[in-house]
Design brief:
It is a single chain. The protein is of the alpha+beta class. It has 2 domains: 136 residues, Alpha-Beta Complex (Quinone Oxidoreductase, Chain A, domain 1), CATH 3.90.180; 67 residues, Rossmann fold (3-Layer(aba) Sandwich). It has 6 helices and 12 strands. The strands form 4 sheets. It has a 5-stranded antiparallel β-sheet. A 3-stranded parallel β-sheet has the order 10-11-12, sandwiched between helices. β1 and β2 form a beta hairpin. α3 crosses α4. The radius of gyration is 20 Å and the shape is elongated.
């Protein structure tokens, strides 16, 4: 294939446009990914509306990308064609600045955000730097893997750095895009998991995902309920 379709933003505040163009070639230390799925994150609106420093247009956004490596650039040794990979918010780092030397890659002075500083996953093909890649196991479908690369990482790291230990009481506020993943992670981490939402329509899902209790904020005071549980 020599041409591809992408969804492009041509100017701040402008509409999404379906465009056709050439399939990009991978540069050194990058790979080309044939996109199989891309999640839609509210942060994409920063690009849509131009509310982010250093943006250049036209731009293809999307930073919850799952696909298969279609081609590799020179210098790529750890990844190969046909490998299932994903790309999230982290689009690349320099590896040379002080934050990078401390292993704080998100603090890199030249940090790149997928779909912000370089084109993202609202396209049939995507060029990604090798340090931004994550391998996707065969047990996950592309549509399952894509949101884990942003919403999943957000909730997982929040729980991982919370200081809570297995057996502790943990409350997850909301059972939406992030919350439904947070409930599952909290359950698998061994926490006594309480989900908080608005309305009884979310109760069945919350319990199915692993919450021990569901608190309806429309009919109860979650703070008092959590305090009574020892939180």
């Amino acid at each position: 294939m020599t041409s591809m379709t992408s969804v492009q933003i041509t100017s701040p505040g402008g509409p999404f446009k379906l465009v056709h163009g050439p399939v990009p070639e991978p540069k050194p230390n990058t790979v080309r990914i044939k996109v199989q799925a891309c999640g839609v994150c509210h942060s994409d609106m920063f690009v849509k509306e131009g509310h982010w420093p250093g943006l250049h247009y036209p731009r293809v956004t999307g930073h919850e990308v799952a696909g298969v490596i279609d081609a590799v650039g020179t210098g790529v040794v750890a990844w190969e064609k046909g490998q299932r990979v994903g790309v999230g918010w982290h689009g690349g780092h320099c590896g040379h600045c002080a934050p990078c030397h401390r292993g704080v890659f998100f603090g890199c002075q030249k940090f790149l955000v997928t779909g912000f500083h370089e084109d993202g996953g609202y396209a049939e093909y995507l060029i990604a730097r090798t340090e931004a890649l994550a391998a996707i196991p065969d047990v996950l479908t592309p549509t399952e893997a894509a949101p884990i690369l942003c919403a999943g990482i957000t909730t997982f790291n929040s729980l991982r750095h919370s200081g809570a230990k297995a057996g502790d009481l943990v409350a997850v506020q909301g059972v939406g895009g992030l919350g439904h993943l947070g409930v599952q992670f909290a359950n698998k981490m061994g926490f006594h998991t309480v989900a908080i939402g608005r309305g009884q329509d979310k109760a069945t899902l919350a319990l199915k995902l692993g919450a021990e209790r569901y608190l309806d904020a429309e009919t109860t005071d979650p703070a008092k309920e959590l305090a009574s549980l020892g939180g």
